[in-house]
Write a structure and sequence with these properties.
Length: 129
């Protein structure tokens, strides 16, 4: 398990208010979120050199499906851990990513505790400091 005092997190969420709340949740549990509001913004950030330990990706994005973005990013960067968030179709998403230990699914609405548990299940653990 990787233990650090902070991680950069790519947060991909198109709804501004949801992005603000998610960003606050991530900060409160010790992460450093970088927000992208579309799949293209997320791809641009990664292609521009961003190497987050974690991505939190909403399924419903204005320019594509978040699950497709997950597949693209994981293909190019298999070390990237991903939390897929969705307000619907959680069972289908869990089935889609079953067997991929680098991806977990969290249902919306979620709490700080839900995100903390999801990241721990992916082998990411923050240390106080």
């Amino acid at each position: 398990m990787s233990v650090q005092t902070s991680f950069e997190v790519l947060l991909v969420e198109d709804e501004p208010l949801v992005a603000i709340v998610a960003e606050e949740c991530l900060r409160s549990i010790g992460y450093e979120p970088i927000v992208a509001h579309s799949a293209q913004e997320a791809r641009d950030a990664i292609e521009g050199g961003l190497r987050p330990a974690l991505a939190v990706i909403d399924v419903g994005l204005p320019d594509g499906r978040g699950d497709e973005l997950v597949t693209q990013l994981r293909r190019r960067h298999p070390e990237l851990r991903v939390v897929v968030v969705s307000g619907y179709e959680e069972d289908e998403l869990r089935a889609q990513f079953q067997g991929d230990r680098g991806v977990t699914v969290v249902a919306k609405p979620y709490t700080e505790l839900d995100l903390a548990r999801a990241t721990e299940s992916l082998g990411l653990e923050l240390r106080e400091g």
